[in-house]
Structure formats: structure tokens, C-alpha cells
Design a protein that fits this description.
Helix content is about 45%, strand content about 15%. By secondary structure, the chain is of the alpha/beta class. The chain has a single domain, classed as Rossmann fold (3-Layer(aba) Sandwich), CATH 3.40.50. The protein has a seven-stranded parallel β-sheet, sandwiched between helices. Helix 1 runs parallel beside helix 2, helix 1 packs across helix 8 and helix 4 packs parallel to helix 5. The radius of gyration is 17 Å and the shape is globular.
Length: about 250
């Protein structure tokens, strides 16, 4: 992927995996639309891209709001004239609780961002890609899109939903030139799990769940995302790819 005319959207790109995806898209020649609710972090990602000669803009977007997702795509096309790739990465850990004790508000917030947000983004990204002659979408699921994790019912349900939604979109649009895949990171060094890592016992427990013997790095996930969008993955669609240090091999 080294086409200066390609345009990529990355949601949740103010930090962590999203930031690394945005930077790597830019390194591969794409114009990048950086999206997040965190303005300072999003603008910093743009600056990091521009410092190395890349072209990027920031669009503040709450993916749980369908109108903001629509505006994100409209601003992308307005600025760059097209849309080729999207990494729907925005997500939260959400409330930690058991099913019976989880608050309705906590459930709705997590589902709204982690699952509905992916749907809203694709709803507007896909028509734009079709007008551009096709494209590729990578939805950020999780290892918890395949297995359960006690105390995270909304997160687990949302990520399972992302995997299913991805398969459905792939069936519907692959013949029209839009490939759709999902990625399932294990526990990755990002701000989302920073609090867990601060607890030595919890951190050691998390590491022990990854046969490779460590947690992942955001750039390791970004490499997979960008590959899935590239022509090197031209026959790959409707798939779920874990990048998890062997977590799911247990």
C-alpha cells in the first residue's frame, strides 16, 4: 500500500492501537482522517503524522452518535474527495460487573460505542467506498469477541457482535469491491489497560494468559490492520484475525 491517492479513516485514533494504525496508514502513503472524542490526543496524532511528511486531519467524533459518524465520512470526502479504507477502532472497556449487577446505563454505553458505533460508521463508510470504486474495512473486535471474560458482559457481547456484523457486511458487499474483516487483539499495552498493568498481580496474571509471555504492542496490531486493507489481502474478507500472543490457543 503506497498509493498517495488512498484515504483512510481511523476512529479512536487519539492513542493506543488507533494512533498506531493512523501513523502506519500515513507511512504507507495514505491521507488519514483521525477521529476520536479526545481532541488533544487526536490533534497530537495528526501532528505526529505531519512531522514525518504525512497528510492528516482531525475530526472529533462520538461514534455512539450516528449523525457524528455521518459527518465524519462527509468531512472525509469533502476534504480528500474519496474514502478507501476504514479502521473502526473506537471503543471503551466499560463498566466492570457481573450480568445481574451491571447497570443498564453501563450496558447501553458500552454497546453504544463498541457495537452500535461500528454499525453507524460502516453505514456511512460503505456508500462512500462504493462511490470510490471499492475499499476495505477493518473492525476492531477483541479476543473477547470469541470467548467470555467474567465481569465484562457488555464488552464481551459487543465484541462478539462486531465479529458477526463484520461477517454480514462482508457477505453483502464483497462482490461490490468492499472487503470487511475484524481483528481480535489480546491484551495490548494501551491507556485502556493502564490501570490493570499498575497492579503487579493483575499484570502478571494477564501476561500468564498469553503463551508468548508478554502483552502486545499497539504497532503489532496496526501491522495486521494495514495489511488487511492492502492489496496483499485482496482475497481476504469476512474473516476474524486474532493478534493475541496465543491467548485463544488455550
Amino acid at each position: 500500500m503506497s498509493d498517495k491517492n488512498k484515504v483512510a479513516i481511523v476512529t479512536g485514533a487519539a492513542s493506543g492501537i488507533g494512533r498506531e494504525c493512523a501513523i502506519l496508514f500515513a507511512e504507507n502513503g495514505c491521507k488519514v482522517v483521525v477521529s476520536d472524542v479526545v481532541v488533544a490526543g487526536g490533534e497530537e496524532t495528526v501532528e505526529l503524522i505531519e512531522q514525518t511528511g504525512g497528510d492528516a486531519i482531525f475530526v472529533k467524533t462520538d461514534v455512539s452518535d450516528p449523525e457524528e459518524c455521518k459527518t465524519l465520512v462527509e468531512k472525509t470526502v469533502e476534504t480528500y474527495g474519496r474514502l478507501d479504507y476504514a479502521c473502526n477502532n473506537a471503543g471503551i472497556g466499560g463498566e466492570s460487573n457481573s450480568v445481574a449487577d451491571m447497570s443498564v446505563a453501563g450496558w447501553q454505553k458500552t454497546i453504544g460505542i463498541n457495537l452500535s458505533g461500528v454499525f453507524y460508521c460502516m453505514k456511512y463508510q460503505i456508500p462512500a467506498m462504493l462511490k470510490s470504486g471499492g475499499g476495505a474495512i477493518v473492525n476492531m473486535a477483541s479476543i473477547l469477541g470469541q470467548v467470555g471474560f467474567a465481569g465484562a458482559p457488555a464488552y464481551v457481547a459487543a465484541k462478539h457482535g462486531v465479529v458477526g456484523l463484520t461477517k454480514d457486511a462482508a457477505l453483502e458487499y464483497s462482490q461490490q469491491g468492499v472487503r470487511v474483516n475484524s481483528v481480535g487483539p489480546g491484551f495490548i499495552h494501551t491507556p485502556m489497560i493502564a490501570e490493570l498493568e499498575e497492579n503487579t498481580a493483575v499484570n502478571d496474571m494477564l501476561i500468564s494468559m498469553h503463551p508468548i509471555g508478554r502483552l502486545g504492542k499497539p504497532e503489532e496490531v496496526a501491522e495486521l490492520v494495514v495489511w488487511l486493507c492492502s492489496e496483499k489481502a485482496s482475497f481476504v474478507t469476512g474473516a476474524y484475525y486474532p493478534v493475541d500472543g496465543g491467548y485463544l490457543a488455550h
